[in-house]
Amino acid sequence: MSTVLITGANRGLGLEFVRQYAADGWEVLATSRQPEKSAELTQITAQHPTVVLHRLDVTDDESVQDLADKLDGKPIDVLLHSAGIYPREGQHIGEIDYDGWREAMETNLFGVMRVTETLLENVAASQRKQIAAISTSLSSVRGVQDGSVAQAGTSYQYRSSKTALNMALSILAKELEPRGISVVLLDPGWVKTDMGGAHAPLSPQESIAGMRKVLSGNPMEISGKFMGHDGALRLW
Ligand SMILES: NC(=O)c1ccc[n+]([C@@H]2O[C@H](COP(=O)([O-])OP(=O)(O)OC[C@H]3O[C@@H](n4cnc5c(N)ncnc54)[C@H](OP(=O)(O)O)[C@@H]3O)[C@@H](O)[C@H]2O)c1
Which of 81, 125, 132, 164 is 20 to 30 A from 171, comparing alpha carbons? Predict the structure, then answer.
C-alpha cells in the first residue's frame, strides 16, 4: 500500500486530497494543527482505517520534529504540502503589513522546506519518492509583467512567498535528482475553499482529481516542473 502525508489536511484542498487518496485505498497520514477539532477528518478516519491523524504546525520546528520521531523512518511515497496562508491586510505600498509577510514566508516557504528537510529520509525510503507542493498562478513573475495574472491585485506577501517557494523547490528538484527523488510544484487553479472563496470556478473535487492525475504519472518526468491541475506545464 502506498503512503501519502498531507499538510493542512483539515480543510480546503488538503481535506479533499485526504478524501480522494483514502477512497483510492492509500494509507493517508493526515496532518493539521488541531486534528481533533476537524469533524470531517474524524468522520473520514471512521470510514477509512488507513487514514491516521497527526498533529503538525509547519511553522514550528518542535512540532515537525515530533512528527518525524513518531513516524520513526516510516516510508512516505508522496509528501504533499497543502498548508498555506494568504494574508489579507496591508497589501499596498504605504501600508505594508510586514508581520503578515513574515508569517506568509514562514508558512508558505519555510514551512514547506522545514517539513521536507525533516522528512526527507522517509521519502527516500519509499517506492515513489515524490514531493509535491501547492503553488499558485499568482506566483508568476511573467504574469505580473505581461498583465495576464492581474486579478489578485498587489498581495505582496502571498505572491512573493509562493514565487520564493517555486525557486526553492526548483533548486531542491535539482539537488535531489541524483537520489531519484522527484519534486514538483502544482497549480490547483482557483478553487472554492476558505482561501479561494465562494466565487471560484473550480470545486475541490475537480481540482484535486486533476492534480492527483498529474502526480500519478512517472514522478521523475515532472520533477522540477510547475504543473497545472489540467496537466499543462505552467511557466512562471
Ligand atoms: N483555493 C485556491 O483557489 C488556491 C489557489 C492557488 C493555490 N492555493 C494553495 O493551496 C493550498 C491550500 O489552500 P486552501 O484553498 O485549501 O486554503 P484554506 O482553505 O485556507 O486551508 C489552508 C490550510 O492550511 C493550513 N495551515 C495554515 N497554516 C498552517 C500551519 N502553520 N501549519 C499547518 N497547517 C497550516 C490550515 O490549517 P488551520 O485550519 O489550522 O488554519 C488549513 O488546513 C495553499 O497552499 C494555497 O496557497 C489555493
Answer: 125
Q: Coil, helix or strand for 53?
A: strand
* The architecture CATH gives domain 3-228: 3-Layer(aba) Sandwich (3.40)
Measured in angstroms, how far is the CA atom of residue 197 from the centroid of ligand 1?
12
pLDDT of residue 147: 81
Residue to mutate (ligand 1; options 5, 11, 38, 109; most atoms within 8 A of CB): 11
Which residues face 179 on adjacent strands?
A: none
What angle do helix axes 12-23 and 39-47 make, rounded to 10 degrees? 10
pTM for the model: 0.97
Helix, strand or coil, per DSSP, at residue 185 = strand
Instruction: Tell me, using a 6 A CB cutoff, whether residue 227 lines ligand 1.
Output: no
Q: Is the CB of residue 12 below 6 angstroms from any atom belonging to ligand 1?
A: yes
pLDDT of residue 143: 87
Q: Alpha helix locations (H) across 24-96?
A: 39-47, 61-71
| Rounded distance from Cα 176 to ligand 1 centre (Å) | 26
Q: 199: exposed, middle or buried (C-beta count within 10 Å: 0-12, 13-18, 19+)?
A: exposed
Here the cell at position 8 is 493542512
pLDDT digits (tens, 9 = 90+) for 91-140: 889 999 999 999 999 999 999 999 999 999 999 999 999 999 999 999 99
| Ligand 1 atom closest to the CA of 195, numbered from 1 | 20
Q: Where are the domains of the chain?
A: 3-228
* Residue among 36, 102, 193, 202 whose CB has most ligand 1 atoms within 8 A, to mutate: 193
Residues in the chain where the model's pLDDT stays below 70: 150-152
